[in-house]
């Protein structure tokens, strides 16, 4: 995000699995399923961090260690080098995950995807069981 924020390697890591309601705790979810969101992406998490004024860096090529097919992670900076919080409303990593899980379902990319799907359902639905017609 910003070039002047050094030493990104010491920032906290957020994987999308941490807030995915479709995953179990054994698979890596870290917040309750009722508060988690469905299949978040690193882009959505990054946009939520931007909205919350939390410095972040998206790393799309990194994989989640428990499931290497899950690609991408986000590094976030909650506290500066002096120990001051970047956003006083978000004191911990857990609080950040909860706030991101609230914002992801309202992400503009998700709301745009759902609108065309509802307008294309105007086609008449076929009724009946299918199969051969009796003579």
UniProtKB/TrEMBL annotation:
Residues 102-135 are annotated as: Disordered. SUPFAM superfamilies: SRP19 (SSF69695). It is found in: Cytoplasm; Nucleus, Nucleolus. The keyword Ribonucleoprotein applies. Its main location: cytoplasm. InterPro entries: Signal_recog_particle_SRP19, SRP19-like_sf. Component of a signal recognition particle complex that consists of a 7SL RNA molecule of 300 nucleotides and six protein subunits: SRP72, SRP68, SRP54, SRP19, SRP14 and SRP9. Belongs to the SRP19 family. This is Signal recognition particle 19 kDa protein.
